[in-house]
Design brief:
The protein is 37% helix and 15% strand. By secondary structure, it is an alpha/beta fold. The chain has helices at 18-32, 66-74, 76-92, 109-113, 128-131, 162-172, 186-192, 209-213, 236-249, 275-283, 293-301, 315-324, 346-368, and strands at residues 2-7, 37-41, 115-120, 148-153, 175-180, 196-199, 226-230, 252-256, 268-269, 287-290, 306-309, 331-332. The longest helix is centred in the C-terminal third of the chain and has 23 residues, at 346-368.
Length: 371
């Protein structure tokens, strides 16, 4: 049995992230289904995230305006409850390293955990606009070089030129094989390495909804019919759309966001939801409105009607999934007229996912055999 260290964006950040947690969990479940491999979540904190404090996130918020900071302050009790639930998720749902690793001690992890190699992924670990060329994400620590693979790593909307392009070429040599989440960078990456380069689907699509039911909260958390409004960043146009649909359909609004005062509009605020509760809230929603990539993914997994609004650093990854699944009409572009929505043919959508799932699992197996 080979122990494989999994490096990804998950435990550390300014705010918790359902997608980061669930893609890590899904990756582990997929690896455990490949005979001979034992995934271990590496408790790794990149240097760029070392000053982030999810219990007091004000200093490093994206939004600097006074209104957003006020909303964050009002949401602090929910933020802290949510953080402790995430901590329990990472503690109880994974085989995890016994200690935290940083750039100062990373090379100790191979000895400490008897690792045979590393898998880097998923999520936007290759996005230099977010993380730079992080040594853990780009397998650039000595113990990782030519001893690593990537699965569903994403470049986000990053553009490489000049010195960044030279650094990218150098870092790609650290990998024995590269599985990328979006097609856009496949030709460029293939040009820079002789090793295996493939497009694969996000780990959260490697399983069907029954797998997520294993960890989802069993109880229905909201009795009324409701819209799930999951906002990773505030958009007045998205909020107006939610309220319009809720009024037309007579639905309750269940909201996961930092707009704490929206309870005054009758919204049920649910930022404190843990990962398991999030899955339940998606599963039982009448409709999902989000600007989150993984909010969209789990609406699709649970066959929920949904729309997704655009958001910075998310456009490429959202576009490619919608195009793959023939769901481009579900995307709302900020500033454009909101489109009329047709019913989703989820039998067709899931037949596409199943075909892509089989291909991606095969690629994952091929990659693991190189370690």
């Amino acid at each position: 049995m080979k122990n494989i260290g999994v490096i990804s964006y998950n435990i550390y950040g300014n705010f918790t992230n359902y997608g980061s947690a669930l893609q890590s969990w899904a990756m582990h479940q997929a690896m455990k289904e490949v005979p001979g491999y034992n995934p271990i979540l590496v408790d790794y904190c990149p240097d760029i995230l070392k000053d982030k404090d999810p219990l007091n996130p004000f200093k490093n918020m994206w939004d600097k305006d006074e209104e957003s900071r006020k909303m964050c302050e009002l949401s602090l009790p929910a933020i802290r409850e949510n953080y402790y639930k995430f901590d329990q998720f990472y503690t109880n749902r994974f085989a995890r390293t016994n200690k935290k690793y940083t750039s100062q001690n990373f090379d100790e992890v191979v000895r400490d955990e008897a690792l045979a190699g590393f898998l880097c992924g998923s999520d936007t670990i290759f996005c230099i606009d977010e993380f730079g060329f992080d040594d853990g994400y780009y397998a650039n620590f000595d113990c990782m070089k030519n001893n690593s693979i990537s699965y569903a790593a994403s470049f986000g909307d990053a553009v490489f030129e000049g010195n960044d392009l030279l650094t990218l070429k150098e870092r790609l040599q650290n990998f024995k094989a590269l599985g990328l989440r979006e097609q856009k960078m496949i030709p460029q990456v293939s040009e820079y390495t002789d090793n295996l380069v493939n497009k694969v689907i996000d780990p959260t699509l490697l399983h069907d909804s029954k797998k997520y039911d294993e960890i989802a909260s069993k109880d229905r958390l909201v009795e009324e019919k409701y819209i799930l409004y999951y906002s990773r960043r505030y958009s007045s146009q998205m909020e107006e759309y939610v309220e319009k649909i809720a009024k037309e359909k007579h639905y309750k609004v269940v909201e996961i966001s930092l707009r704490a005062t929206n309870y005054q509009k009758g919204h049920k605020m649910f930022y404190e939801a843990g990962v398991e509760e999030f899955l339940s809230l998606v599963k039982h929603a009448e409709f999902v409105v989000t600007n989150s990539y993984h909010g969209m993914i789990f609406a699709i997994q649970y066959r929920r009607p949904f729309v997704i609004f655009t958001r910075e650093q998310c456009n490429n990854k959202i576009d490619e999934v919608l195009q793959l699944l023939q769901l481009t009409n579900r995307q709302m572009i900020i500033g454009d007229k909101l489109c009329e929505l047709n019913e989703i043919d989820y039998d067709m959508v899931h037949s596409i996912i199943e075909a892509e799932r089989l291909k991606s699992i095969s690629i994952l197996r091929q990659e693991l055999e190189l370690l």
